[in-house]
Write a structure and sequence with these properties.
The chain has about 180 residues and is of the alpha/beta class. The protein contains eight helices and five strands; from the N terminus they run E-H-E-H-H-H-E-H-E-H-H-E-H. The protein has helices spanning about 20-30, 40-45, 50-55, 60-70, 90-100, 110-120, 135-145, 160-170; strands at about 10-15, 35-40, 80, 100-105, 150-155. The radius of gyration is 15 Å and the shape is globular.
Length: about 180
Amino acid sequence: MITQLQEDACVVLIGMAGAGKTTVGEALAKHLNWAFMDTDRLIEAVYGARLQTVTDSMDKESFLDLEAGIITSLRVRRSVLATGGSVIYRESSMRYLSSLGTLVYLDTPLPVLLKRIAAAPDRGLAIGTGQSIEDLFWEREPLYRQWADISVQTENMGLEECVSAICRRLACYEMDHA
């Protein structure tokens, strides 16, 4: 499916931790000459602490409620948003993000995610007691697919290839980037 990118809308990146939402989001925003926002960094700014510290300070459900409150308070346009992987758990967050623009799922295979997460273990995962990353993947993956307007398989793609693939799907190459 190709979606026409609205001039005043947002592009919202969803996917698991390690999918590359922040890296791809920054590059996509630069390509579009739009603002970039990482909602995990926003939570860190609100709490004045690293995301891992925030997630460790509360149970999973409390964190998800906190995240939903911050997400639904955003008033942005012409922005690329990189969301936390757990945003998918709150329907209110997903409905709100859908109202802002196109939801793009960065579909990344589990082995790639495991390698990336192992390289940055303090990334602030919203994970339940006794849950593994594999459990999270299999729990979240159908939800990402359900909400996504567009899915981009990122395996074997470099950063520029991923940005180009998203832009092709959004039909945004014709936009004036100046």
